[in-house]
Amino acid sequence: MNRKEFLKSVLAAAGAATFGAGAARAAEPLKIAIANFGDHPQLNAAWEGFKAEIIAAGYKEGTDVTFTVDHVNFDATLVPQMLTKIEAMKPNLILAVTTPVAQMAKNQLGKSGIPIIFTAVTDPVAAGLVPSWDKGDENMTGSSDMQDFAATIKFTRQLLPDAKTIGVPYNPGEANDVAMLAKMKELAPAEGFGVAEVGIDNVNDIQQRVASLAGKADVIYVPGSNLIQPAIAAVASAALAAKIPIVNTDDGPVKDDVVPASFSMSYDKVGRNAGKIAVRVLKGEKPADVAPSKPAYEDHAPAISKKAAAAFGMAIPDSFKDCGCIVE
């Protein structure tokens, strides 16, 4: 072989090696990082639903896609550290679970070029995550867990026909809670309810603040607050002492006979909605062109605990006799 032929063979081999390396890189699975706020049944159901939806779309775990899950045990001061760790992994997409995590992800990684999908966020517009309900942000969009508050209030009226005032504990520092309170104030009068609000910004104050609703509220609505919902047992303890029935946003405590009733949505569905959006983004759509989603009415369902209702002194109306929603 002469020098010219030798050089040609070397270049051909190098080209083949480069092509082979490129093919190997292309065959690497997509990396999806899940940034959760804390270990909680609703939030876990959301990211598990998200993951299931992506796999259902044809992405095989381990071959086409891999998932990592991190959380900070509801300690907001640790979120930046979690996000720095995630960014170093160079994922193809990030799922941010809850409003606080999504807001910090946007501030910290919004210009990173990594698409960010949020879930378990009540009002992404009020939280500054997207410009409107009709479009996403430059690098972010996702699924809301905004309940149908009009339906929730109707359920509460049917459950407690003589109640006059709904007590609403909320965290003034959480955008989700503030948006929820505004919606409750807007819609409650249509069903003849007034609203008695009580701000709670520290988990240690929950029992005292909820107890302050005695004599002011006939029923308490507990929202999906990242501060208050994980401490539902403390809310229930104070409400039980005051004999104020609770309508919760999550049916788990109803099934555990901790609170009398709930009108809740499926967080699996909320997560799956985020998964559908993620698939669109993974296939090339820009987050800015994908509008955030809201749960449909049919994604909600009532639940009533017979045991907890009796403990709270709440009679279950006959209209619920055949609802299939009574937990015996």
Structural class comes to alpha/beta
- CATH superfamily membership of the largest domain, which one? Response regulator
Count of helix runs: 11
What about the largest sheet? 7 strands, mixed
Please write the CATH class name of the largest domain.
Alpha Beta
Tell me the CATH topology of the largest domain: Rossmann fold
Annotation, overall tally of beta strands:
12
Overall pLDDT confidence: 91
Shape annotation: elongated
Q: What is the spatial order of strands in the main beta sheet?
A: 7-6-8-9-10-11-12
**Gyration radius, in Å:** 24 Å
- Report the order of strands and helices: HEHEHEHEEHEHEHEHEHEHEHE
Throw out a few tags for this protein:
single chain, 328 residues, alpha/beta, Rossmann fold, 2 domains, 19% strand, elongated
Describe the model:
The protein has about 325 residues and is of the alpha/beta class. It has two domains: about 25-145 and about 265-295, Response regulator (Rossmann fold, 3-Layer(aba) Sandwich); about 150-265 and about 300-325, Rossmann fold. It is built from eleven helices and twelve strands. The strands form two sheets. It has a seven-stranded mixed sheet with strand order 7-6-8-9-10-11-12, with helices on both faces. A five-stranded parallel sheet has the order 2-1-3-4-5, sandwiched between helices. Strand 3 (about 95), helix 4 and strand 4 (about 115-120) form a beta-alpha-beta unit. Helix 2 packs across helix 10 (about 265-280). It is elongated. The N and C termini lie far apart (about 90 Å).
